[in-house]
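Run log // design_07
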C-alpha cells in the first residue's frame, strides 16, 4: 500500500503539493477560532457525582465559585481605605456573572431594636473622624464574625469575597474583575486568589511561555537537523512537516470548537518534537541507499520499502500511546490524548505525501553523495555494538537491577493536582495564597448541603455540633451557616448578651427567627437557606492545597457527618477542596487504565509485526522498562504526579516503542539477507542507531526547552520527557539487542523480507 502511495506521489508531485497547500490554508482559518479554557471544573466529567453536587449547590444557592481579592491597605480603618474598598465593592457588583460581593463596607450585622431586630450594614456611613474610626476598628476586630473573616486580625488587610453566578464563561468574569481592579488603580494593593483565579493565571502564563518557548524549540530542531544532515533541505523538509501538522491539528480543534486546556497548550511543542521523527529516518535511509550508488528513484523506492512500514507502525503505536489517554475521565486529558493522536496521524500523512513529493522533485544533495563517513558518531556506535555483543548477559543483569531500584521508587510517588502547586513559591499567586491562609483561613470554600426540615431544632443542633467539630480540624476555618444567623438573632433579641447566643429551642421559635431575618432585609440569607427551608448550606474555608491533607480532611469531615446527622437528613459534601481529591482518583485510575491498554495494544502489534510472541515481548520490554524508570525517578526525587506528568508514561510508550520498531525492523532485514545475529546487531546499532540517536536528541531537547517555563509542572514535564527519551532510546539499543542476540545466537533466521528489498 505504502509503495503504491509513494509511486503515485512520485508520478504527480506537483498535484500533491498543491492539494496539501490548499488544505493547509483551509485549516489556517480554524486557528483564529481556537480558545483556551481555564475552568478547573470543566476538567471533570459532567456526570461525576461530585460535579453534579457542585452544580446543584451553584443553582440552589447562587453560585459555588468564589474569587477572593486581598487588599493590602496598610491600615483598613481610615477614610481613604474604606472609600476605596467601597468603590471596588460597588463596581464589582455590576460585573456580569457576579452574584454577590462581600466586604467590610457592606457586610451585615444583626441588631436588636424595639420591635425585634434590624439587619443593616456594619458601616452605615464611612466615618471621617479619628474617634469614630478607632471605635469602628475596635468593634470589628473584637468580633470573630468579622476579624479573620473579612478583615485581618491586625487591621491591615481587607478581603473582598466575590461569588460568581453559574456560568460557562468563568474565565471572562474573572478577567472583568481584574479589569475593575485595574481601572480603580488598585493593582499594587490587590491580589486575586482562589482556585479559578489561579487556574486562569496558570493558563495565561503557560500561553505566554509557549509563545516564547515554541520558537526556541524550533531553533533546537534546526540545530539537530543541521548537525544530522549538514544541508538546508535536511532542516527545512522535516520542519515543514511539523509546521503543516500543527496548523492542521490546531485548526481542526478550532473548527470543531474544542478549546486548548492547560494540558493541550503544550501540544504544538509535542508535535514539533515528534513530527520530525519519520523525516529523520527516511532521510537517513535515503542517504544510505544513495551511498550504495543507486539513483534517486531507486533509492527512494528502496527507502519506502525498507522504512516505510516501520514509520507507519511507529505512527500507529504513537497514536495508541496518546489515544489511550482518551479513556481518562478527565476531559482535558481525554481531549489532549485524542488530538495529539490525530496530530501524529496527520504528521505521517504529510510525510508520505508532501515530504516525499518534494524529495522526488529535488535532485540528491552533494552531501548525500559524500561517501566520507561521519567518523565520530558511527565510531562510538560501533564500539557500543561490540560491547553489547560481548557483554549481553551483563547488560541484562544491570537492566534488571535498575528496574528493581526504580520499582522501589514508585512506592514513594505523591500526587498533587491543585493549580496553586503550578507556581513557584515566590510567585505572586503563591504569596497571595499564603497571605489568605495566614489571615483568613484559606482561599477555597468547602460546602456542605444539609437537606431536611431545617426548621427542626434537632437538625439545627446537629448542624451546630457538626460545625463546632469540623472547625477543630487543622486546615478548616470557621464554618458559617444559618446556625450563625439564628444565634446572632437570639443574642440581638436579648440586648446583646453573649449567654443568649444560642439556637432557638422550638420549631415555632425557629420559624419566628427566620421570619424576623427575612423581614429585617438580610441580603445574604438566600445564600445559606432555601425559600422552602428544606436545604441549608454550611461553608468553611480550607487552608491547605496539598492533596494528601485534603483527602485526610474529607475523611474526617465524612466521619463527623455520620456522627451528627440522622438517616432522615441527607448531607452532601462538595466545593473545590472536595473536587481536587476526586480529580486525583480519576487521574490515577485513568493513568493505570491507559497504560495497561497502551501496552497491551502495542504488544499485540509487535507480535503481528514480528510474527512471534517472543519477539513481540522483546520489543515491548524496553518501553515497559522506560515507564518503570520514569515513575521510579519521580518517586526517588520527590517529583509529584500532576496533570502534566500523568501523561508522560503514555508519551513514553507512544514514542519509545518507535525506537524498538526501527531497531527490530533493520535487525530482521539484516538477518533475512544471511547475517548472523551478532553481525545484524552491529550493523543495526551502527546505522539505524544514528537515526535513533538523532530522533531521541531532537525529541528530548525539543521538550527540554520547557524547563525555562515559569510553570513548575511544565518545567518538570520538559525534563522528565527528555529523560524518558534517553531511557527509551538507550534501552532500545542495549536491552533489545542483548535479548535478540542471546535468543538468536545459535539459531538460523526464519524471518522473511519483502522480495523487492532482497533484490
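design_07 sequence
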Amino acid at each position: 500500500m505504502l509503495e503504491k502511495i509513494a509511486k503515485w506521489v512520485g508520478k504527480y508531485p506537483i498535484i500533491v503539493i498543491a492539494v496539501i497547500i490548499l488544505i493547509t490554508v483551509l485549516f489556517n482559518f480554524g486557528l483564529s477560532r481556537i480558545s483556551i479554557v481555564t475552568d478547573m471544573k470543566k476538567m471533570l466529567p459532567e456526570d461525576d457525582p461530585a460535579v453534579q453536587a457542585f452544580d446543584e449547590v451553584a443553582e440552589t444557592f447562587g453560585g459555588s465559585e468564589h474569587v477572593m481579592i486581598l487588599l493590602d491597605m496598610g491600615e483598613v480603618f481610615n477614610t481613604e481605605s474604606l472609600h476605596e474598598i467601597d468603590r471596588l465593592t460597588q463596581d464589582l457588583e455590576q460585573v456580569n456573572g457576579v452574584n454577590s460581593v462581600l466586604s467590610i463596607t457592606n457586610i451585615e450585622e444583626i441588631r436588636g431594636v424595639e420591635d425585634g431586630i434590624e439587619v443593616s450594614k456594619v458601616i452605615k456611613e464611612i466615618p471621617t473622624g479619628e474617634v469614630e474610626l478607632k471605635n469602628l476598628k475596635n468593634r470589628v476586630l473584637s468580633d470573630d464574625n468579622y476579624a479573620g473573616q473579612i478583615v485581618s486580625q491586625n487591621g491591615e488587610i481587607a478581603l473582598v469575597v466575590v461569588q460568581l453566578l453559574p456560568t460557562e464563561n468563568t474565565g471572562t468574569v474573572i478577567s472583568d474583575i481584574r479589569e475593575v481592579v485595574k481601572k480603580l488603580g488598585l493593582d499594587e494593593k490587590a491580589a486575586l486568589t482562589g482556585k479559578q483565579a489561579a487556574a486562569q493565571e496558570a493558563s495565561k502564563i503557560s500561553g505566554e511561555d509557549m509563545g516564547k518557548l515554541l520558537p526556541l524549540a524550533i531553533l533546537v530542531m534546526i540545530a539537530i537537523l543541521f548537525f544530522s544532515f549538514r544541508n538546508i533541505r535536511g532542516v527545512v523538509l522535516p520542519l515543514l512537516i511539523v509546521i503543516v501538522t500543527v496548523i492542521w491539528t490546531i485548526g481542526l480543534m478550532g473548527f470543531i470548537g474544542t478549546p486548548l486546556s492547560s494540558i493541550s497548550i503544550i501540544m504544538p511543542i509535542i508535535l514539533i518534537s515528534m513530527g520530525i521523527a519519520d523525516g529523520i529516518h527516511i532521510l537517513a535511509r535515503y542517504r544510505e541507499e544513495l551511498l550504495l550508488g543507486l539513483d534517486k528513484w531507486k533509492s527512494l523506492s528502496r527507502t519506502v520499502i525498507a522504512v516505510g512500514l516501520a514509520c507507519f507502525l511507529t505512527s500507529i503505536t504513537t497514536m495508541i500511546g496518546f489515544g489511550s489517554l482518551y479513556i481518562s475521565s478527565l476531559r482535558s486529558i481525554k481531549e489532549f490524548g485524542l488530538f495529539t493522536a490525530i496530530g501524529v496521524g496527520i504528521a505521517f500523512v504529510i510525510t508520505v505525501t508532501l515530504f516525499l513529493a518534494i524529495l522526488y522533485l529535488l535532485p540528491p544533495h552533494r552531501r548525500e553523495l559524500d561517501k566520507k563517513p561521519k567518523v565520530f558518531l558511527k565510531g562510538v556506535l560501533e564500539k557500543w555494538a561490540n560491547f553489547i555483543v560481548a557483554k549481553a548477559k551483563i547488560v541484562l543483569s544491570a537492566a534488571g537491577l535498575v528496574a528493581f531500584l526504580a520499582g522501589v521508587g514508585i512506592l514513594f510517588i505523591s500526587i498533587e493536582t491543585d493549580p496553586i502547586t503550578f507556581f513557584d513559591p515566590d510567585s505572586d499567586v503563591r504569596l497571595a495564597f499564603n497571605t489568605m491562609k495566614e489571615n483568613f483561613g484559606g482561599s477555597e470554600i468547602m460546602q456542605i448541603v444539609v437537606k431536611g426540615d431545617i426548621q427542626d431544632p434537632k437538625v439545627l443542633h446537629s448542624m451546630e455540633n457538626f460545625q463546632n467539630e469540623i472547625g477543630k480540624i487543622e486546615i478548616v476555618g470557621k464554618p458559617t451557616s444559618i446556625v450563625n444567623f439564628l444565634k446572632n438573632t437570639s443574642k440581638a433579641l436579648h440586648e446583646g448578651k453573649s449567654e443568649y447566643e444560642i439556637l432557638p429551642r422550638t420549631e415555632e421559635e425557629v420559624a419566628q427567627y427566620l421570619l424576623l431575618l427575612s423581614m429585617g432585609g438580610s441580603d445574604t440569607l438566600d445564600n445559606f437557606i432555601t425559600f422552602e427551608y428544606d436545604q441549608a448550606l454550611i461553608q468553611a474555608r480550607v487552608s491547605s492545597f496539598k492533596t494528601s491533607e485534603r483527602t485526610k480532611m474529607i475523611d474526617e469531615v465524612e466521619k463527623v457527618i455520620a456522627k451528627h446527622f440522622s438517616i432522615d437528613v441527607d448531607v452532601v459534601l462538595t466545593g473545590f477542596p472536595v473536587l481536587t481529591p476526586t480529580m486525583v482518583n480519576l487521574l490515577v485510575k485513568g493513568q493505570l487504565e491507559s497504560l495497561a491498554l497502551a501496552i497491551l495494544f502495542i504488544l499485540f502489534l509487535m507480535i503481528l509485526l514480528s510474527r512471534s510472541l517472543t519477539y513481540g515481548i522483546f520489543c515491548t520490554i524496553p518501553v515497559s522498562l522506560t515507564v518503570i524508570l520514569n515513575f521510579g525517578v519521580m518517586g526517588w526525587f520527590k517529583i509529584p504526579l500532576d496533570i502534566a506528568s500523568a501523561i508522560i508514561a503514555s508519551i513514553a510508550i507512544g514514542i519509545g516503542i518507535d525506537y524498538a520498531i526501527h531497531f527490530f525492523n533493520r535487525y530482521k532485514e539484516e538477518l533475512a539477507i544471511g547475517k548472523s545475529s551478532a553481525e545484524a546487531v552491529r550493523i543495526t546499532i551502527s546505522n539505524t542507531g544514528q537515526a535513533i540517536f538523532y530522533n531521541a536528541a531532537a525529541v528530548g531537547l525539543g521538550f527540554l526547552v520547557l524547563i525555562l517555563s515559569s510553570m513548575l509542572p511544565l518545567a518538570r514535564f520538559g525534563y522528565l520527557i527528555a529523560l524518558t527519551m534517553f531511557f527509551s532510546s538507550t534501552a532500545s539499543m542495549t536491552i533489545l539487542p542483548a535479548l535478540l542476540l542471546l535468543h538468536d545466537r545459535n539459531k538460523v533466521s526464519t524471518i522473511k523480507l519483502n522480495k523487492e528489498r532482497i533484490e
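Strands lie at 65-72, 98-102, 108-113, 116-121, 157-164, 190-193, 444-451, 535-542, 570-575.
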